[in-house]
Design goal:
Blueprint: H1 8-20, E1 26-32, H2 44-48, E2 53-58, H3 65-77, E3 81-84, H4 94-103, H5 105-113, E4 120-125, H6 132-139, E5 158-162, E6 166-170, H7 182-190, H8 201-224, H9 234-244, E7 248-249, E8 253-254, H10 256-268
Parallel strand pairs: 1-2, 1-4, 2-3, 4-6
Antiparallel strand pairs: 5-6, 7-8
Helix pairs in contact: 8-9, 8-10, 9-10
Bound molecules: guanosine-5'-diphosphate (GDP) and magnesium ion.
Magnesium ion (MG) binds next to helix 6.
Length: about 290
Amino acid sequence: MIIQWYPGHMDKALREMQGVMKLVDAVIYVLDSRAPFSCINPKYKEIIGNKPAIITLNKADLVQDSELKKWEHLFEKNGYEVVSLNSTVTNATKMLLMKAEKLLAEKINKNKAKGIHLPIRMMVIGVPNCGKSTLINNVCANKKAVTGDKAGVTRSNQWVKIGGDYELLDTPGTLWPSFKNNKVARNLAYIGSIKDDVLDIEELAFAFIDDLRVKFFENFVERYSLKCSNDCETIEIFDEICLNRNFKIRGNEIDYTRGAKAIIDDFRKGRLGKIILDDLTDAKDDFKII
Ligand SMILES: Nc1nc2c(ncn2[C@@H]2O[C@H](COP(=O)(O)OP(=O)(O)O)[C@@H](O)[C@H]2O)c(=O)[nH]1
Ligand SMILES: [Mg+2]
């Protein structure tokens, strides 16, 4: 399946982000831990320019620690500051803020010497649904950023002031004009970064089973008590999942739409287990991401 989604408002949002970049001290570059490579937006390179940035692997609770560590190492090896976190847990952003203060220590100390206290201003960027607004709310106790479990909830830039110490800029999720390949596009769709309305959910679920059965067949067996072996055709696996759930229409026909929704929802909610969609080897060819 071919997936493409780059609506005009994203292009506008990227331009606006570029416009306000001069106002910020640093960038919090959020990646979904389930797809750390697929979430890398080639457009951000020019937008971030020379600003200090922290790669933030969010939704760490949805993947295996040992696997995520490998990604952290890869980013570190390539010279990036990295933090992984679960933004839904109180105080999860503490490490991130400490890292930011360390990164900006020179500037902060200079201001201090002059007797001025300025808030640290950071822009939070990332693909739709990676958890930018949730992360900001984690920093600020009274939940000022609007969040939601789908792409396109944050519509425009929004400054969130946190005491006198931080000002964080929430930005709309942004993608780029053409995906590197279809695997990247599919991964973005699986994690909910592409609006579901532009996707054929049955095709998506079929592709999902087809992609994941290679490394994660056991996750399907466990979740759906599959009798199919890994020699079965993908459609047989899809059928069995639907039939196990008794998803039928008009007597005995399989209700693939319902089945597809259930499968994708299971993955998104972590019920299929802890899964990183990207392979480390995907990343090796373009690792200058900023
Ligand atoms: N499990 C988990 N869910 C998260 C985390 N961060 C955000 N979410 C969920 O992901 C969805 C999208 O979050 P949101 O902050 O609106 O994403 P945004 O589009 O990047 O601003 C919401 O349902 C959040 O509750 C996390 O660290 N772990
Ligand atoms: Mg948002």
